[in-house]
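FORM 12-B: Structure-to-Sequence Request
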């Protein structure tokens, strides 16, 4: 046992002497980041619930579509259990690259065309926009999951009291599935602006240079690709 571990245990003992035995059990069954932050004990059963804004499991979603729920959730659970959420840029808000999920999803985008008949109008987050038809989705090249711990999800400014009650009992919440037919897809322009306006805590840490770089990548990607629907 290293000096840092002994020091951490001693601090726990002094602060929680009455419950020392149970705390040591938690400590030894948890992952510890370099900063000394305890993550969820590894023996706890992982329970993932999809957020109320995620449409990937529906019959005709806008964006990425999960085509095999069982295979996808198996891959997602493995990715979640292998990830240390204490080391995320904003603790608990995980961006998990998950190539293992690629066989179980349809891409959320495709190359833009100049044929108006390749597009369909659809209502998405309160706005009617044009999207490529699902048949125009490209082959998946990249897949990632946006997963929050339950604590981080409940702290999100856009989570309503009703949604908080719905996800009660979950250890993690699946917020987004990103399967792109190009390289790693950046945020859509609408989501980028919403995050800057206070829709996500991580955006508060972006500096001016990072914002400009993200804006450049978003403009470059979405000029070439378009979100699919159906």
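FORM 12-B RESPONSE
SEQUENCE OUT:
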């Amino acid at each position: 046992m290293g000096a840092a571990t002994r020091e951490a245990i001693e601090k726990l003992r002094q602060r929680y002497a009455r419950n020392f035995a149970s705390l040591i059990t938690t400590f030894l069954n948890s992952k510890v980041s370099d900063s000394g932050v305890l993550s969820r004990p590894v023996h706890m059963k992982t329970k993932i619930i999809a957020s109320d804004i995620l449409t990937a499991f529906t019959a005709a979603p806008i964006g990425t579509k999960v085509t095999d729920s069982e295979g996808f959730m198996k891959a997602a659970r493995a990715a979640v259990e292998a990830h240390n959420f204490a080391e995320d840029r904003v603790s608990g808000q995980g961006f998990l690259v998950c190539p293992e999920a690629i066989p179980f999803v349809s891409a959320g985008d495709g190359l833009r065309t100049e044929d108006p008949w390749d597009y369909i109008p659809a209502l998405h987050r309160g706005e009617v926009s044009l999207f490529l038809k699902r048949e125009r989705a490209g082959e998946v090249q990249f897949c990632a999951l946006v997963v929050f711990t339950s604590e981080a999800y409940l702290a999100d400014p856009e989570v309503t009291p009703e949604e908080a009650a719905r996800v009660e009992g979950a250890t993690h919440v699946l917020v987004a599935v990103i399967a792109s037919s190009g390289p790693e897809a950046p945020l859509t322009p609408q989501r980028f602006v919403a995050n800057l306006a206070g829709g996500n805590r991580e955006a508060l840490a972006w500096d001016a240079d990072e914002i400009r770089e993200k804006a450049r990548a978003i403009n470059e990607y979405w000029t070439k690709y378009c979100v699919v629907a159906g």
